[in-house]
Specification:
2 domains; five-stranded mixed beta sheet; D-Maltodextrin-Binding Protein, domain 2; 237 residues; alpha/beta; 36% helix; 10 helices
Length: 237
């Protein structure tokens, strides 16, 4: 790093891990600054920030937690912005299991189809998990699905449940699906956006990062047209 280079330490929602790994070299090359990332569910990161974890910026998978940090004077009020809007998909690693309309859920008879587990992220800490629960509620499947549901700590663990076939179905982020080679994408249903609250992912400068030029540069970088185009290509709106 040059004499003027600094380091930004970012708390980043797990769904954005693949995208940030693609963006990191570009950011570091363009600015000379260094990016250090920590990935977990938004709720877990929120709790860590409240407990004094040394983060400069927070990339949440929702709007509520950054706003709460602003209210708690742990984040800078005028720094918050939406960096991505997430999309939810139902995924199976089995190529024929999920149909394009999601009828595999509606039709029931799951055990006969070999479905023992339906994975979702923890709805209390992960916005994608909350969206999955809202989808099941919209389909009137909240009670029927309860014995089948397995909960990941975050969307990354939920993805692993399905990828390893420990769960036959799972609600994941579209960006995770697009990161796979086409021949490994199994079968999917893109959940209609009317079935769940918008997954508006907000970034915010934390008070610790207020005078960190690398943190300022990173948030500017996220908002640039080039970066936003790359984020959209990774499966976000």
């Amino acid at each position: 790093m040059g004499a003027q280079a600094e380091q930004v330490t970012a708390a980043i929602a797990a769904n954005f891990a693949g995208t940030i790994r693609q963006l990191k070299p570009l950011f570091e090359r363009e600015t000379g600054h260094r990016l250090v990332s920590s990935f977990a569910s938004s709720g877990t990161l929120f709790a860590q920030i409240h407990n004094g974890a040394p983060f400069d910026v927070f990339l949440s998978a929702d709007e509520q937690r950054p706003q709460q940090l602003i209210d708690d004077q742990l984040a800078i009020a005028d720094s918050a912005f939406i960096y991505a809007t997430g999309l939810l998909v139902l995924w199976s690693s089995q190529p024929e299991l999920v149909d394009p309309r999601g009828d595999v859920l509606r039709a029931g008879h799951w055990r006969e189809k070999g479905i023992r587990h339906i994975a979702l992220a923890n709805p209390k800490t992960a916005p994608y998990g909350r969206a999955a629960l809202q989808t099941l509620k919209a389909m009137h499947l909240l009670n029927a699905s309860k014995p089948y549901r397995v909960t990941g700590q975050n969307i990354a663990q939920t993805f692993q449940f399905v990828a390893s076939a420990n769960a036959q179905l799972g609600f994941i982020a579209k960006t995770q699906l697009l990161a796979l080679p086409e021949n490994e994408r199994g079968s999917t249903w893109r959940v209609p956006e009317l079935m769940y609250s918008p997954i508006r992912q907000q970034a915010v400068m934390l008070t610790r990062g207020r005078d960190n030029r690398a943190a300022e540069a990173f948030l500017r970088f996220l908002q640039s047209p080039q970066t936003q185009k790359m984020i959209s290509a990774r499966g976000y709106k």
